Amino acid sequence: MTAQGEKAYAYPQAGDDIVVGFFGDVARYLAVIRERGPKTGFSLAEMSSILALNAPADRWKSETIAPAAPAKSSKTPRKTVSPASPSTYYTLSDNGRQIVGWQPGDKPFVFFLLPSYPGQQHILLNEWQIARAVG
């Protein structure tokens, strides 16, 4: 996830790391990564605390989306694969800015992005890139 002018700083917390990424001295992304303890997604209480890093948790909108079902096959599966946990997506519109974020199922991280900021280029990232970089 490195780009020209990007700087990222990690701040260890109790069991988690908070990574803040800057472009041109403006914070543009935030990742909270569970480094110690169970390698699971964050609980509702933990997510409320994480959301409050940007704005009060009750100002965020969220939507949980189940992963697409795999295509049906006439072949008999060799092993049973447990279905993936649904991802939760977050949005916050505040003071002319929009922050988007997601917690990918039961993975041990959550990621937030300020995709556009006046006077700076837009940032376009996808879940695969983020999971590869921090997950």
User: H/E element string?
Assistant: EEEHEEEEH
Share of β-strand residues = 35-45%
From the alpha carbons, calculate the radius of gyration and give it in angstroms. 17 Å
The separation of the N and C termini measures: 13 Å
Counted up, domains total 1
Mean pLDDT metric: 84
Main beta-sheet strand count, sense and barrel state = 7 strands, antiparallel
C-alpha geometry:
globular
- What's the total count of β strands? 7
The number of distinct helices, counting runs of at least 4 residues, comes to 2
Which structural class should the secondary elements be placed in? mainly beta
The percent range for helix content is 10-25%
In the sheet with the most strands, the strands line up as 1-2-3-7-6-5-4
Low-confidence stretches: none
Identify the notable features of this structure and list them briefly.
mainly beta; 2 helices; globular
Fold topology:
Elements: E1 6-12, E2 16-23, E3 26-34, H1 44-51, E4 61-65, E5 87-94, E6 97-103, E7 109-113, H2 127-134
Antiparallel strand pairs: 1-2, 2-3, 3-7, 4-5, 5-6, 6-7
Outline the structure in words.
- The radius of gyration is 17 Å and the shape is globular.
- The protein has helices at 44-51, 127-134, and strands at residues 6-12, 16-23, 26-34, 61-65, 87-94, 97-103, 109-113.
- The model has no long low-confidence stretch (mean pLDDT 84).
- 12% of the residues lie in helices and 36% in strands.
- It has a seven-stranded antiparallel beta sheet, with helices on one face.
- It is mainly β.
- The chain is built from two helices and seven strands.
- It has one domain (6-67, 84-134).
